[in-house]
Design brief:
- This protein is an alpha/beta fold.
- Helices cover about 40% and strands about 20% of the residues.
- The protein contains nine helices and nine strands.
- The strands form three sheets. The chain has a four-stranded parallel sheet, covered by helices on one side.
- It starts with a helix and ends with a helix.
């Protein structure tokens, strides 16, 4: 039975590697078909290539001049955007500004970290910095942990699985995408014109001030991207704001 299991695993790995080679071979055709100004665009053509030529594995990322890897099982639009489009495919202007700010920072707080792009840029840009990345969705939090460990940042970059709000509590996390895609855009709040596909995940909320106290962490710089719930996050960080 052990021999059979190994043979099945070997066939599965061979099939996966073949699919990944096929996907990599199609990247040039995808990029050649993009018009000026379409770099990084997530549109029907992007999804057609992504779905027809799925890639499962670590993707080399170049963002704001920093290099690291991110894991995708054809489900992370941030990582897959870099796979298909190339360097600086996701929010290049914001990440360029962020890179300039975090380069001299000692302690960085990334609230709404998703799979870790901004936090990973910070960790790569400032090798002596300590980074705390906060992500509410459990599945995405798991991917964040994988990306931290894959880059060897686990000694100075840590992930926290909480949703930030004005105070402690328990609430429902709303998903706007299907299970085959990590929940980019998911929120504590409903969004106009967007259907809630799932509201089953219960998440603990915490005020940023309380979170920092529990972590023993005093950030030099904070990034907050919590999909419309930013006011709730600010209401929970009065102490931190008053220090400024």
């Amino acid at each position: 039975m052990a021999g059979l299991a190994l043979a099945v695993e070997a066939r599965g790995m061979a099939a996966l590697e073949a699919a990944n080679r096929h996907a990599r071979a199609e990247v040039a055709a995808f990029r050649a078909g993009r018009a000026a100004g379409e770099h990084g665009l997530i549109d029907a053509r992007f999804h057609r290539f992504k779905n027809r030529f799925p890639y499962h594995g670590f993707i080399e990322i170049e963002a704001a001049g920093e290099r690291f890897v991110m894991l995708s099982t054809n489900d992370d639009l941030v990582a897959m955007s870099h796979f298909w489009h190339g360097a600086d495919a996701w929010e290049p202007m914001s990440l360029g500004v962020w890179r300039g700010w975090v380069g001299e920072s000692a302690r960085v707080l990334d609230v709404g970290a998703f799979s870790g792009l901004y936090g990973l840029v910070a960790a790569a840009a400032a090798p002596a910095a300590e980074v705390v990345a906060v992500e509410a969705a459990r599945r995405t939090y798991g991917r964040l942990l994988s990306n931290i460990q894959a880059n060897g940042f686990d000694g100075r970059m840590r992930a926290v699985n909480r949703a930030v709000a004005a105070g402690p509590g328990l609430t429902t996390f709303k998903r706007f995408r299907g299970e085959n895609i990590l929940g980019i855009g998911d929120s504590l709040l409903e969004k106009d014109g967007m259907a809630v596909l799932s509201a089953e995940e219960r998440v603990e909320t915490v005020a940023i001030d309380a979170l920092l106290a529990a972590e023993g962490f005093a950030p030099d710089i904070v990034k907050i991207d919590v999909e419309g719930a930013e006011l709730m996050a600010l209401e929970g960080m009065e102490a931190l704001l008053s220090e400024g």
